[in-house]
Design goal:
The complex is a heterodimer of chains A (about 210) and B (about 475). Chain A contains seven helices and no strands. Chain A has about 210 residues and is mostly helical. Chain A has one domain (about 1-205). Chain A is globular and about 55 Å long. Chain B is mainly α and about 475 residues long. Chain B has one domain. In chain B, helix 10 (about 230-255) runs parallel beside helix 12 and helix 16 runs antiparallel to helix 17 (about 395-420). The longest helix of chain B has about 35 residues, at about 140-175. The chains are: A mainly alpha (about 210), B mainly alpha (about 475). At the A-B interface, helix 5, helix 6 and helix 7 of A face helix 5, helix 6, helix 8 and helix 9 of B.
Chain lengths: ~210, ~475
């Protein structure tokens, strides 16, 4: 089973690169949703079945796979935009940086010894690579929606690692984290709505009134 | 009684949601805050023992933060009634609701011993504060809200990864992942150094950005500059202290692990000095007096970090400074909000002669400035003096010297902004708004100023004991 988990983790890392290379926002949102669903399936592959596990799986798939993508596409519809127009750094360079980050995360993972039963699993590199991809999207894209997507990718990266611990952690914390993510995205959606009304655009590079002279 | 501290504000929040009248609604704040303060006072004297599972325990460190938060909130709640009577043109439902939810979550932060629960509570404060920064509903405040939300969300996300690393290190060590502080402290020596190190770095970056330590402070000037004064006061004296408490928890774990503490102290010293240096640079010739206060907050977070980084005698100073800085920032933010209201402007090009137009608010702002720059007889002087003298006693001459240098530059920078503002004649071409100093807008900061003076001249016995107990928790190996 664990080799299947590794294949899914590689898929997560490939989705990262896909997201770095595309300008179509709807496509990015779908990719992030697929990542969320994979995150929901993973705990079932490495931990024995239990009620707690089932609840986690359903919770993750529901929030990350369905509700959050729906909230973001709703924000896109309201703001009437389709594409990330001109990122601060082009798509090909970010793709290359993304590949470099993935390589670095493999090197980094070597320094952190996993418990014997998790040996040979790619959770740590997948987690760090996804986290760094999220950072890259956050820092290089202009549109507020792209930044929210970047934040989601970053959170996915954190969750990938958290999945190793699903058995050992109390449900409350996971539920809290998921709920927080949901509320956070909801509030960000509202803020985006206000930004587009206030500036007639959701280009965050226009948000520069508050600068030090 | 501890749970009342969390549930009471939530009940108040529910009430604020239901009450339809915009004039009556703010009255919920002082009622809840007064009961909260009384409960806090009772708990400080006689705290219940740790809960059976070890999740809930109001320890001395939590008590210090709880005291600061509760006192500051009580003062701000009375001020809010006065302030909101001037802002009847817009609904204050979200503001009251957010403040009360935040108070509840801050109470949770102070009393929990489970790092995961602490994280969730800290998260809640972040989200609850976001709509409050946007209270003025204009382009500038939405920009500030956006930056605050993105940076703090990312920061707190990194802290979560740090927590997961920490939990995994306990899993590697004895196959039972836990985030309970008590268990972590007992088993800290067995943890894998690699995992622990990674966890500490992520936690420092995550909670550091919430606390606003340089170079992770980018959201601070904008959020403090655009939020209403009382929200600024609670951000600078409440939320930031809750984030500092989280850093203290990490410090406890590093201390128990033995090796990690050296790295953590070094990192805190570097970030602390950087915060002070950066604040000193940006505070010079700062025309916007609310942004100036934000940089002052960055500076004082730096002082707290340095106190923690130095350890030993400076720990007492750091804990005392947490309280002093929170209360003094309250005075400054509330009085600056009054000035802002009267001039409808917050740049020093327009705002002049405040002492003539608003003698009370101007006087309080001036007194707050004197206190925050560390002049006797106010209490920030005592805490800053404790930290700097401990630096020299322990042989950290470079740190102590830089500390004094930056304090000096900050003092000059702030003087250049504050003195022209409060002195001189008010501008003739700027019509005063209908704002006038009244009991409810001047009384609360005045009360806080008196508290700061009393703490500086004659610190009460129970507080000294409490601070000593807190500092002891950060010194002795458990």
């Amino acid at each position: 089973m664990s080799s299947f988990a590794d294949e899914l983790l590689i898929l997560v890392m490939l989705i990262n690169l896909v997201m770095l290379g595309t300008s179509r926002l709807i496509f990015s949102i779908r990719a992030v949703a697929v990542q969320g669903v994979i995150l929901g399936i993973l705990p079932g592959l490495i931990h024995p079945f239990s009620g707690h596990l089932a609840a986690i799986t359903i919770g993750i798939i529901l929030t990350k796979g369905i509700v959050i993508p729906y909230l973001i596409s709703d924000a896109i519809r309201k703001a009437q935009i389709r594409r990330e127009v001109e990122p601060f750094i082009g798509y090909v360079p970010t793709l290359l940086i993304g590949a470099l980050f993935t390589a670095i995360s493999f090197a980094f993972a070597d320094k952190l010894p996993l418990a014997p039963e998790h040996q040979d699993l790619l959770f740590v590199p997948a987690s760090i690579a996804t986290l760094l991809t999220g950072f890259l999207i956050l820092t290089t894209r202009r549109k507020a929606i792209s930044m929210v997507i970047g934040y989601l990718v970053l959170e996915n990266g954190i969750f990938v690692f958290g999945l190793l611990l699903t058995e050992a952690m109390p449900v409350m914390i996971e539920a809290g984290a998921l709920l927080y993510l949901l509320v956070g995205i909801f509030v960000m959606g509202i803020v985006i709505n206000h930004i587009s009304r206030e500036f007639s655009s959701i280009d965050t590079s226009r948000l520069r009134t508050l600068k030090e002279e | 009684m501890l749970f009342t501290l969390v549930l009471l504000p939530l009940f108040g929040a529910l009430l604020a949601w239901i009450v339809p009248n915009n004039r009556l609604r703010p009255l919920i704040l002082p009622v809840v805050a007064t009961v909260h303060l009384v409960l806090t006072a009772l708990l400080l004297g006689n705290a219940p023992p740790p809960s059976p599972g070890g999740w809930i325990w109001l320890d001395p460190l939590g008590k210090v933060v709880l005291l600061c938060v509760s006192l500051l909130f009580a003062v701000c709640s009375f001020y809010a009634v006065g302030y909101l009577s001037y802002r009847q043109e817009r609904s204050n439902r979200v503001l009251c609701l957010g403040l009360l939810v935040c108070l509840s979550a801050m109470g949770m932060v102070t009393m929990t011993q489970h790092l995961g629960l602490l994280w969730v509570a800290l998260e809640t404060t972040t989200v609850a504060m976001a709509p409050l920064i946007y209270f003025n509903r204009n382009a500038r405040s939405i920009e500030a809200t956006w930056k605050y939300l993105m940076l703090c969300s990312v920061g707190i996300g990194l802290a979560l990864l740090g927590l997961l690393f920490l939990a995994y290190s306990t899993y590697v060590a004895h196959h039972d992942a836990t985030l309970l502080l008590g268990t972590l402290l007992r088993s800290a020596r067995d943890l894998n150094p690699g995992w622990l190190h990674a966890a500490v770095i992520f936690l420092l970056v995550g909670y550091g950005s919430k606390m606003g330590l340089a170079p992770l402070h980018a959201w601070k000037p904008d959020a403090y500059g655009e939020a209403p004064g009382l929200v600024g006061a609670l951000l600078a004296g409440g939320l930031v202290n809750c984030a500092f408490l989280s850093i203290l928890r990490v410090y406890q774990i590093c201390l128990a692990s033995g090796l990690e503490i050296r790295f953590f102290q070094q990192a805190l010293l570097v970030m602390g000095l950087l915060s002070m240096a950066l604040a000193a640079v940006f505070m010079a010739r700062q025309a916007d007096f609310k942004r100036m206060l934000a940089y002052s907050s960055v500076e004082h977070m730096g002082i707290l970090a340095i106190g923690l980084g130095l350890g030993k005698g400076a720990l007492y100073g750091a804990l005392f400074h947490l309280l002093n800085n929170g209360l003094t920032k309250g005075v400054l933010f509330l009085s600056s909000a009054n000035i802002h209201r009267s001039y409808s402007n917050k740049t020093t090009n327009v705002v002049k002669g405040v002492l003539t137009r608003l003698p009370w608010s101007g006087g309080l702002f001036l007194a707050g400035f004197i206190a925050i720059t560390g002049s006797p007889p106010f209490s920030p002087f005592i805490s800053e003096y404790t930290i700097v003298s401990s630096a020299f006693i322990d042989g950290h001459h470079l740190v102590g010297g830089l500390f004094l240098l930056f304090l000096g530059i900050v003092f000059i920078g702030m003087t250049l902004t504050v003195l022209p503002m409060v002195m001189g004649a008010p501008p003739v071409d700027v019509e005063p708004t209908d704002y006038q100093d009244r009991l409810l807008t001047v009384g609360p900061p005045l009360f806080m100023m008196v508290v700061i003076l009393v703490l500086g001249v004659w610190p009460p016995e129970f507080l000294v004991t409490l601070l000593k107990d807190g500092a002891a928790m950060l010194e002795v190996h458990p």
